[in-house]
Amino acid sequence: MVEKSVSPFGELAPKTPASLSDIKKNIYGRYLEEFNVGDIYVHPRQFTVDRTFAQEFATVFMDANPLYLSSEYAKAHGFQDLLVHPLMVFNLALSIGVQNNSEKALANLGYYNAQFLMPVYPGDTLSSRTKILAVDDKGPDKPGIVSVRTLCLNQKNEVVLQYERKIMIYQSNGKPKGNPKPGDASAFFPESKTPALKLPNLKFPTEMKDVTWGHTYFENFKPGQIYVHQNGRTITDEHYQWTYRVGNTHPLHYDKLYSAGISGPMGGEPVVYGGLVFGWLAGMASRDISENAIWELGFTEGYHTQPAFSGDTVTCISRILTTEDKGTEYGIPAGEVQIQFIGLKNIKANDALDKFGADLFLKENDKKKLGKEKIPEKIFEIERRLIIKKQP
């Protein structure tokens, strides 16, 4: 123990003349020319996810799966405690890396090959690190594209999540640059092209079947089904707080002065951080789709096709692509279900399906070559893959 007497201190500023000769203006983030293929960034900061934080995320984002809400339910299924929601893990991993990866980004172009590999429990501490896969420089007058792979590690340096994304970033073109910590191609980065999923020995507690409703078991899903999720969620200025809470430092999401200086669809008011939009959409779908899921295997080909702002109401639709019976490969009777997931804003999901029909399920980036107009109410598209247990 250190023990030292402390005395009150007097005011110095009125007696100290202000000098303007030594002014510090720290600048964060990287421009396109500051990325090098093969560099690895070990991101500053870690997050210990306590139980309150984990349960608050699951409830604020409206998830109905009791694995994220009830420790008794999770333990009965073989987990050591309730699970930290996978989209909370994803949002923390991405946000921790913003200072290195995308604080100067114009847009996040997409998510790819996201794989959740191990449970995260309350009390676990998460960190992340990123490897630069490719830099596509389109010239000084056009934004380039940086492709990255990010790993999320727990306190044991075990990989709990691996994913890729593409980021649109301009060259500096004379703008002041910061002094970011250089990348280190030799840094610890336990990536894998074929990562292994590590789950505990799962159990099948039939006595807890009444904790969930009975229409979201594996047998209930058939390829071709379209689930029109009935409730919407109006996003308020709460999104500022949640941007801070998951550690995202891009001013586009919380600084009105910064946002007002941007032209185009991303300018004006702060844009809701896309990972939060994904979380609200997935939560709204959970009563129809994932209430009886035992694991989120991951997602891919995900795009924020339009920005969302405070005051927007988001809605969603799911389309079942494939179902694959896995017998007891995961220790309990279960199957895998792959889903196309569509997010909308300021239109009811029923009305969107009536208005746009099958065009909702075409990729927005493919619309031009198909001779079709993009859908301004469509804000998100992604494919998810879930492990869903069978009927008890």
Mean pLDDT over all positions: 96
Strand content: 25-35%
Largest sheet: 12 strands, antiparallel
Uncertain parts:
none
Give the count of helical stretches. 8
Q: Structural class of the secondary structure composition? A: alpha+beta
Shape: globular
Q: What is the string of SSEs from the N terminus onward?
A: EEHHHHEEEEEEHHHEEEHE
Number of E-state strands: 12
Question: What is the straight-line distance between the termini?
Answer: 57 Å
- Return Rg in Å: 23 Å
Instruction: Give the proportion of residues in helices.
Output: 10-25%
Describe this structure in words.
By secondary structure, the protein is an alpha+beta fold. α3 packs antiparallel against α7. The termini are far apart. The chain contains eight helices and twelve strands. Strands 1, 2, 3, 4, 5, 6, 7, 8, 9, 10, 11 and 12 form a twelve-stranded antiparallel β-sheet that branches.
Furnish the topology, listing elements before pairings.
Blueprint: E1 40-42, E2 47-48, H1 51-60, H2 71-76, H3 86-96, H4 98-101, E3 105-116, E4 125-136, E5 144-153, E6 159-169, E7 226-228, E8 233-234, H5 238-245, H6 256-260, H7 274-285, E9 293-304, E10 313-325, E11 334-345, H8 349-356, E12 378-389
Antiparallel strand pairs: 1-4, 2-4, 3-6, 3-9, 4-5, 5-6, 7-10, 8-10, 9-12, 10-11, 11-12
Offer a few descriptive terms.
392 residues; alpha+beta; twelve-stranded antiparallel beta sheet; 16% helix; globular
